[in-house]
Write a structure and sequence with these properties.
It is built from eight helices and ten strands. It is α/β, with parallel strands linked by helices. The strands form two sheets. It has a five-stranded parallel β-sheet with strand order 3-2-4-1-5, covered by helices on one side. A five-stranded mixed β-sheet has the order 6-7-10-8-9, sandwiched between helices. Strand 6, helix 6 and strand 7 form a beta-alpha-beta unit. The chain starts with a strand and ends in an 8-residue tail after the last strand.
Length: 228
C-alpha cells in the first residue's frame, strides 16, 4: 500500500491525527527533500533515524523510480510533499499514474492544501472552476495567460514569488481591468488576501504593502477582457 499523507502548509496544528499516526509508524517514506521531511518529523517529536527516507522529484531518473516501485510492491510506503497534499503540482501525480499502471494499491488522506481554502474564500459561485497549477515559466506563458483571461469559468493558478510581478505586468499589458484575487501565505502568521486590479497590485508591491514572499495563489475575478 502506498499512502499519500498531507502535511501543514503553514500552521503545524493543521496536521490530522491520522497523518501523525502514519508518520509514527512509517518505515519507508518518499519525499521531495529529505531535509525538510526530517524537520517535519522533529516538529512532532517523531524519531526519524529509524526510517528510510528517499527523495523523489521531477528530476529523479527513471531507474530510481523503478527501484521505488519495487519498494511499493514489497511493503507499505508513505509519501509526503514539501507542504500540503501531494497532488497536481507535485511530482507525485506521476507516482499515482504508476500505481494505476502496475495495479498497486494506494490511498490518499484528505485535507491540507492551498487550493480548497482559496476556492471557498472566493466571493462568487465556484461550484465549477478551472485549476491550472503553476503557469509556464517561459514557453507558452503568454498563451496560458491569454487563455485564462478569456475562460468561461473562474480560473485558479499558483505563482512563484520569483514570477508574481512578471505575471501581474503581463496581465496589465493585456488590458485586463477586472479584479484579481491574491492569497499569500495561507495558514501562516502573515497571511494576506487581497482583491485588486493588476495595476493596483503592482503599485502595492512598489509600496511594500504587498510583500513578495513565499508562493501566491491567484484567482482572476471575471471571465471577460475589457479594453480601453
Amino acid at each position: 500500500m502506498l499512502s499519500f499523507i498531507p502535511t501543514p502548509i503553514g500552521n503545524k496544528d493543521d496536521i490530522t491525527v491520522r497523518a501523525l499516526k502514519l508518520l509514527e509508524s512509517v518505515t519507508v517514506l518518499f519525499c521531495e527533500d529529505t531535509r525538510t521531511t526530517i524537520k517535519l518529523l522533529r516538529m512532532y517529536d517523531i524519531e526519524w533515524k529509524t526510517k528510510k527516507l528517499y527523495s523523489l522529484t521531477s528530476y529523479t531518473p527513471e531507474h530510481r523510480i523503478d527501484e521505488y516501485i519495487t519498494f511499493v510492491k514489497e511493503q507499505d510506503c508513505w509519501v509526503v510533499s514539501e507542504a500540503g497534499t501531494p497532488w497536481l503540482s507535485d511530482p507525485w501525480k506521476h507516482l499515482i499514474k504508476l500505481c494505476w499502471d502496475f495495479h498497486l494499491p494506494f490511498e490518499i488522506l484528505p485535507w491540507a492544501n492551498a487550493l480548497i481554502p482559496w476556492v471557498i474564500a472566493c466571493p462568487t459561485n465556484t461550484s465549477s472552476f478551472v485549476y491550472k497549477g503553476f503557469l509556464p515559466q517561459k514557453k507558452w506563458r503568454m498563451g496560458a495567460i491569454k487563455e485564462i483571461l478569456q475562460h468561461d469559468y473562474p480560473v485558479f493558478v499558483y505563482e512563484s514569488v520569483h514570477r508574481i510581478e512578471k505575471m501581474l505586468q503581463q496581465v496589465k499589458n493585456e488590458w485586463y481591468k477586472w479584479k484579481i484575487y491574491i492569497w499569500r501565505e495561507i495558514s501562516k502568521m502573515h497571511e494576506q488576501h487581497i482583491i485588486w486590479t493588476a495595476e493596483e497590485l503592482i503599485k502595492q508591491i512598489e509600496l511594500w504593502w504587498l510583500v513578495i514572499k513565499w508562493e501566491f495563489v491567484v484567482w482572476f475575478f471575471d471571465q471577460h477582457n475589457v479594453k480601453n
